[in-house]
Amino acid sequence: MIVNPVKVGSVNLNIPVLLAPMAAITTPAVRILAEECGAEMTFTEMISAAALFRGVRAARNLIRRSSPGKVFAVQLFGSDPHEMGYSAWYLKNQGAQYIDINMGCPMKDIVSNGSGAALMKTPELASDIVKVVIDSVKDEVPVTVKIRAGWDFDSLNAVPFAQLMEKSGARAITVHGRTRNQLYTGKSNPQVIRDVKNSVSIPVFANGDIKTAADAMELIRFTKADGVMVARGSFGNPWIFRDIRKSFETGHCVETPVTSEEKLQMILRHLEMIEISQDADSLAQSRKQIAWYSKNLHDSSSFREMVFSTSDIQSLKKLASELFSKNVN
Ligand SMILES: Cc1cc2nc3c(=O)[nH]c(=O)nc-3n(C[C@H](O)[C@H](O)[C@H](O)COP(=O)(O)O)c2cc1C
Fold first, then answer.
1. What confidence tens digit (pLDDT) does each residue in 26-84 have?
2. Cα–Cα dist 108/56, whole Å
3. What is the pLDDT of residues 277-300, one digit of tens each?
4. Options 25, 76, 103, 105, the catalytic residue
5. Distance 20 CA to ligand 1 centre (A)
6. Mutate-to-test residue for ligand 1 from 26, 230, 232, highest number of ligand atoms within 8 A of CB
C-alpha cells in the first residue's frame, strides 16, 4: 500500500506524514529535528487569536518558522470571528503558508471560552470562523481544521461537522478519534476517522495513538485517510518520521532500530540548537525532550537527573558524550 502525495490548496505534501501541533512541545528545534528525520510538515503550537489581537508579545513569539524550505504551518485557536480573522491576516503577513484552526483542544481554560473542542458544539460559529479566516487571507493560504470525534460519546458529530467545515471552505481536516471528554485517555477510535473520510472530498489526516510505523500503516489501511499526523508517538522519537516516511514510500512497514549513536547525536544537536536559539528554544522548556532521547540507553538515569537539575549546556554536552562512550553499539 503506497501512500500518495496530497495537495492541500496550494500546498503539496509529497509524503503525507505530519508532526502535530503541541503546546509547549513543538518549538522550532523540535519541528526542525522532526523534519530532518522525515516529517513532511510540522506546526507551531496553537496560538491564541485573542492574544495576537491584543498584540501580546508571548503569542507573537510563537510565530516561528521551522526549517527553511519547509511549509510554514501555524495553528490558531479562538472563538471570536473578528479576532480570528485579524489573526489569520497577521499570520499571513508574517509568512504563514498554512493555517490550521484548533477545534479539538479539550482543556478547561480553552473550552470555557468557546474555543478548541467547544467549537464542535457550536457548528454555526465554527463555520463562520472558517469563512472569516479564509476571507481574511484571501484564500491565498490553505485554511484547515483539526477536530475530535465529538464532545462526548453522546454527541459524536464528527461526520456532519466535517461536512460543514468542507462546505465552509476548509481545505483539509485532521481527525483525532477521541472525544473531548476522553481528553488524552482511553483509545482513539479509527472508525470515526474512516467515517469522516467517507463523507468529505477534501484530504483527511488521521491522528491518534500512532506510536510506530506499523500503527500508521494500519490506520491508513483501515481509514483510507490521505495522511497521518503524529503527536505523542514522536516524544523522544523523531525517528518515527523516518520509519513512516519509508513505509509510505515503499508500501511496506519499515521500522529501523535507532542506534545509541543516533540518540546521542540527537541530544547534542538539540542542545546546540538551544544554544544558538534566540529565545525560541530554551533549555527550561526542552528538558523533557532531551531526557526522552536518552531513554533505554545504558546507565542513563544520572544523565536524566542532570538534565532536570542543571542549566549548564556545556556540562550536559559533556555528560552526553560520556554516556555515549558507555553505550557504543
Ligand atoms: C502536550 C500536548 C500538547 C498538545 N497541544 C495541542 C495543540 O496546541 N493543538 C492541537 O491541535 N492539539 C494539541 N494536542 C493534541 C495533539 O495534537 C493530538 O491531537 C493528540 O495528542 C492525539 O494524538 P496522539 O495520540 O498521537 O498523541 C496536544 C497534545 C499533547 C499531548
1. 999 999 999 999 999 999 999 999 999 999 999 999 999 999 999 999 999 999 999 99
2. 21
3. 877 788 998 999 999 999 989 989
4. 105
5. 6
6. 232
Pocket test for ligand 1, best of 18, 22, 98, 115 (most atoms within 8 A of CB): 22
37 counts as catalytic: no
Distance of alpha carbon 302 from alpha carbon 125, whole angstroms? 51
Tell me the per-residue pLDDT of 148-207, one tens digit each, with 9 for 90 and over: 999 999 999 999 999 999 999 999 999 999 999 999 999 999 999 999 999 999 999 999
CATH of 6-250, one of 3.30.70.20, 1.20.120.1770, 2.40.160.40, 3.20.20.70: 3.20.20.70
CB of 74 sitting under 6 A from ligand 1: no
- C-alpha cell, 312: 549548564
Q: pTM for the whole thing?
A: 0.97
Q: With cut-offs at 50, 70 and 90, classify the pLDDT of residue 329.
A: low
